Amino acid sequence: MENSKYPKFTFTWIGGLILLIGLFVGTTFVSFLNVFWMLVFKINLQYKDWFFMLMNAAGFLTAIAFFDFFIVRPTTKKKLNFNFSSTNFYTYVLIFPMMLGMMFIGEFITAQIPVTGPFWGKYYEFFTQLMDQITNDKVVMFMTTVIMAPVFEEIIFRGIIQKGLINKGVKPGRAILYAAIIFGLVHGNPWQFVGAVLLGCVLGVVYYKTKSLLLPMLLHGFNNLCSSLLITYTKNESFSEALHVSEWIILTVGIILFTLFYYLFMKKYKVHYSEI
């Protein structure tokens, strides 16, 4: 590993602060660009459907760049670099059904969170309006959720946070859970938090075993693609409603899929890749 082209950096609260500063700088720059555009051209870009996508991209890219220049390069003398290699077909046969199973489980648990009441009702209404604004333009929605989000978020949450914690000496199981919880918290609402934590755990396990960020990116994109298609064609994110079956059936199928393919992937599939 001493001759590895992949830097062995660690992740601490300082690294987290650097990521937040980078995110703030990137989004602030885009905000100033919007102010300039309004002053010169009298057009508020904030009302453009693609503006949210631009702000997200700027924030994530700047956060990653800041972590690279202020944490990775000074401590490792190498630039931030990840393994994006593919793997054999059998791996994909195992991880995608496992992911789908966890998506079904996550949907059932999320459905138990209240969406009515004096607090939950107003919060859910605000969340719904925000999601409607984001999904107004379907092309932008697909580009943002299916392509951009999986790439940037997996680099940060699995590639930087999870990997950095493991490099620091945190046990892999805890590092995977910590990264998944942070991943859930940044979504900013309880309905996405549960699913994000569960899915983040699956993504973390796949990344830890294969050492390739390509696989969690593809799984993340698969999850977001399913959600986007459900929103587009059924106006909700529910497999249960889309398939016209009980939530308990979705849960049962989810448990079977996840348990079976997790067992095959973790216990029977002995290949454990390494970064070289």
Protein described:
By secondary structure, the chain is mostly helical. The protein has ten helices and no strands. The protein has helices at 13-41, 51-76, 89-111, 120-134, 138-168, 172-185, 190-210, 214-234, 239-243, 247-268. The model has no long low-confidence stretch (mean pLDDT 91).
Number of strands: 0
Rg, nearest Å: 20 Å
Structural class: mainly alpha
Mean pLDDT across residues: 91
Strand residue content: under 5%
Q: Roughly what percent helix? A: over 70%
Cα shape:
globular
Helix count, per DSSP?
10
Order of helices and strands: HHHHHHHHHH
Q: What is the rounded distance between the termini?
A: 6 Å
> Major β-sheet, in short?
none
**Ranges with pLDDT <50 over ≥5 residues?**
none
Helices and strands, with pairings:
Layout: H1 13-41, H2 51-76, H3 89-111, H4 120-134, H5 138-168, H6 172-185, H7 190-210, H8 214-234, H9 239-243, H10 247-268
Helix pairs in contact: 1-2, 2-5, 3-7, 3-8, 3-10, 5-6, 5-7, 5-8, 6-7, 7-8
Name its key features.
276 residues, mainly alpha, 10 helices
In short:
This protein is mainly α and 276 residues long. The chain has helices at 13-41, 51-76, 89-111, 120-134, 138-168, 172-185, 190-210, 214-234, 239-243, 247-268.
